Amino acid sequence: MASANRSQAAQGLSLIAPPLGYALLIMAAPLLTILAYSFFKDGYLTVIREFTLENYASVWADPIFHKIMLRSLGVAALVTLVTVLLAFPVAYFLSFAVPAHKKSMWLFLITIPFWTSYLIRVFLWKVILGYNGVINSGLTSVGLIEEPLTFLLYNVNSIVITLAHAYAPFAILPIFIALEKIDRSLLEAGRDLGESRAMTFWRVTLPLAMPGVVAASLIVFIPVIGDYVTPTVIGGGKIPMIANMIQAQMLDLDNRPLGSALAVTAMLIVAVFSLIFVALNRRFLKVRQ
Fold it and tell me: Domain ABC transmembrane type-1: where (predicted)?
């Protein structure tokens, strides 16, 4: 029996070895390279391969880094909140209101934004929110405003709107999957016991859907922290986030060691916040149970 298990394990390992090796090469190698560079010294147009902790000391002592990191975390949290709040009703509608034979069509429609480049969608939002954009032109043409509104673009609100739209499908799909896994008999039992639809949702549906909500939150929060296109295009470069700071060090200033230290520090901070969020969610579920 033991030999059979070892044989099956060996077969499974042989099957996953090629994609595992590819994943390690594509994902782990760049991360290890950035980690190594973060401990090197910067020279003029070159990297001095001597171990140092000066890069991390400079990062943690830099008040600009503190300010930009806090802004990035705040914007990412706000985008995550808005995206999940907008995605949950859509996922709930798909799971509970749409007939089973039409769900695949609705999911297909949700994926349509992926057909176009992310950069194109960002520029389209700039056209929509711009000084002479779609919104201002429409409001001016119907006489609601006399002059174009200037607060629609180049601010945090426009960044949040653009990112929430860009990452909405990523939030809808995991929430939808979690809702689909809920046993409908549990909801019927709650209503049979005299609970209203609102209380059944609060006590049964929402706790059971929380794994999907947590997955959606992490799927949105983590990449938003690393987004530098939207703050540049929609924010006009006036509201830089941590990714813009890393890009400036890596490319504009050619300081790869300091840029790598910034990237590693940002990854660690995001990892800590993500673990805290998951832990709080588990505690919330235990209290609800």
Answer: 69-279
